Amino acid sequence: MIHARITGTGSYLPPVRLSNDDLVARGIDTNDEWVVGRTGIRARHFARDDQVCSDLALAAAERALEAAGRKAADIDLIVLATSTPDYIFPSTAAILQKKLGMANDAAVFDLQAVCSGFVYALATAEKFIRSGSHKRALVIGSEVFSRILNWQDRTTCVLFGDGAGAVVVEASDTPGILATALHADGRHSDILSVPGSINSGKVVGSPFLQMDGQAVFKFAVRVLGDVAIEVCKQAGIATSEVDWIIPHQANVRILQATAKRLDLPFEKVIVTVAEHGNTSAASVPLALDLAVRDGRIQPGHRLLLQGVGGGFTWGAVLLNF
Ligand code: UT7
Questions:
Q1: Which of 24, 119, 163, 320 has a 20 to 30 Å separation from 303 between CA atoms?
Q2: Which residue's CA lies nearest to atom 35 of ligand 1?
Q3: 157 CB near ligand 1 (under 6 Å)
Q4: Cα dist. 139→225, 241, 299 in Å?
Q5: Is 0.85 surpassed by the pTM of this model?
Q6: pLDDT by residue (tens digit) across 33-80?
Q7: What is the pLDDT of residues 231-279, one digit of tens each?
Q8: Across residues 178-199, what is the average pLDDT?
Q9: Is 210 left (phi over 0), alpha (psi -120 to 50) or beta?
């Protein structure tokens, strides 16, 4: 039986770091106490004006390839999760393939599931690999949310940041990914959206992120708990047998509520939201790579990755690292 296993992780945070006080200095009507108290966010990183989604993805992908001991030419599948692509088309995955110097005929595509994007992408790549059609995948979450923030809307602009995270996933004889679950409920598509489109050279609707924060909060707490239980059941393990939970990083209060619902100590949750803000599809692979590189996550550990976001979408991947 073919299994899919993560063999390397990488990430990239762009160089511009802004604290909450830096946002106040830039004229945003907010304060550090409110943002830290409501969200746990202390800072976020923003891409330079000359950096686009594929640039961040490239840096993360190169680090993941190096960690896996692979070259770009070894990759036969790229699944890139983003809501802030370089262009309408071609896909950011195809632009990344070019930037990586890949001259093979790999399958590459973008995947749009907003903040659940990386979990959706990882579960998708796992199915390609387990089918035997592909052997080595790059799975990436890369975002430049700074480009879609409305700086007049303090209820959203303080929450998000830019970044990218990547993993190499390979066919293996031993189980890596143990269980996956992906869900969506499009009836709630309006609680978190960028409701704009382009028609005849003009933006129709709004090109800015808008969110009903309280509705998203309630939904997130419920589904993150449900989906964790679902994948553990699928794999026949108790939630207490998970070594590390790596949820989408939107709000530290959501992470605390999820740990409580699962009756797990908060120390088992990897938390990066304080320094990264919400980086949408990049948040889970960024947190994963950080904890791998600082030595908390060790080979053999059991990890629960969780995503939740616009769509409304949610999902989880349970794996042996
Ligand atoms: O990746 C997608 C997932 N996204 C999320 O998970 C976000 C989930 N939602 C949340 O994290 C929270 O709902 C927020 C952090 C977005 C908001 O927290 P809240 O406790 O729901 O606050 P609120 O929207 O009810 O606003 C409370 C007050 C309001 O003032 P009044 O009307 O009570 O006087 C807001 O005007 O806080 C005010 N406020 C702010 N004050 C200072 C809203 N934004 C700010 C701000 N700085 N940035």
A1: 163
A2: 155
A3: no
A4: 24, 26, 19
A5: yes
A6: 999 999 999 999 999 999 999 999 999 999 999 999 999 999 999 999
A7: 999 999 999 999 999 999 999 999 999 999 999 999 999 999 999 999 9
A8: 97
A9: beta
> Looking at the structure, do residues 124 and 245 belong to the same domain, yes or no?
no
- Average pLDDT score over the chain: 97
**Nearest Cα to 274, choosing from 264, 265, 283, 266?**
283
CATH number at residue 237: 3.40.47.10
The verdict on 68 and 55 lying in the same domain is yes
List the beta strands (DSSP E) in 206-283.
210-211, 244-247
Q: Give residue 159 CA to ligand 1 midpoint distance, Å.
A: 9
From 174, 193, 210, the end of a domain falls on 174
The whole-number pLDDT of residue 59 equals 98
Residue type, 107: A
23 CA → ligand 1 middle, Å: 16
Please state the atom number of ligand 1 nearest to the C-alpha of residue 283: 1
Instruction: Report CA 288 to chain centroid distance, whole Å.
Output: 10
Q: Name the residue range of residue 15's domain.
A: 3-174
Ligand 1 contact, 251 CB (< 6 A): yes
Give me the active site residues, please: 115, 248, 278
Same domain? For 128 and 236 the reply is no
